[in-house]
Amino acid sequence: MNFKRLIKYSFLILIPCLVQILLLKNIALFGVAFCFIYLLTILSLPTTIPQIPLLLTSFGIGLLIDIFYDTLGMHALAATFLAFLRPFWLKIISPIGGYEDTTDPSISEMGIRWFLTYSLPLVFAFCLVFFLVNQWGTGEVVNILNKSFFSTIFTVILAIIVQLLFFKRSRGI
């Protein structure tokens, strides 16, 4: 990885985490839709990143969010679970020729339909694990599914808006 890409991914990790910590911490639409914009950092890492660095990066990002949210490792657990599922899901939805070495899984590289297919199940899995751990033992399965569904929709819509506004476009959408 060259120095320019290292700086790019450092900012890709730092800025959404700061936005999550400083702006989105107390935002919940109707008390059920929470935004986890920092997941965009994990979802936007290159498709060729090895599994162990991906897991460690995701765990570190989740732990950073946990420190400021006082959630005792729930973000770290769910983010690491998302990172664990990501390579398997990328194999399932891979194009016929596979991915190029420089492919970033973003709207500008792959298109909006592919990004929705890629991000919706992964973000839903994250939200399901997060809210399941958050409400463990309460027996509120409907509430867990409700929060997971609406948080997934809110997070993915915001991720699409962020990508359309701030990521460089390289092909038509």
Plain-language structure description:
The protein is an all-alpha fold and 173 residues long. It has one domain (3-166). The model has no long low-confidence stretch (mean pLDDT 86). The radius of gyration is 16 Å and the shape is globular. A two-stranded antiparallel ribbon has the order 1-2. It has seven helices and two strands; from the N terminus they run αββαααααα. It has helices at residues 3-22, 39-43, 51-69, 74-92, 107-110, 112-134, 141-166; strands spanning 28-29, 33-34. The protein starts with a helix and ends in a 7-residue tail after the last helix. Strand 1 (28-29) and strand 2 form a beta hairpin.
Précis, in short:
This protein has 173 residues and is mainly alpha-helical. It has helices spanning 3-22, 39-43, 51-69, 74-92, 107-110, 112-134, 141-166; strands at residues 28-29, 33-34.
| Helix and strand sequence | HEEHHHHHH
Specify the helix fraction band.
55-70%
Uncertain ranges: none
- Overall pLDDT: 86
Please give the alpha-carbon distance between the first and last residues.
28 Å
SS field, number of helical segments = 7
Q: Strand sequence of the main sheet, in spatial order? A: 1-2
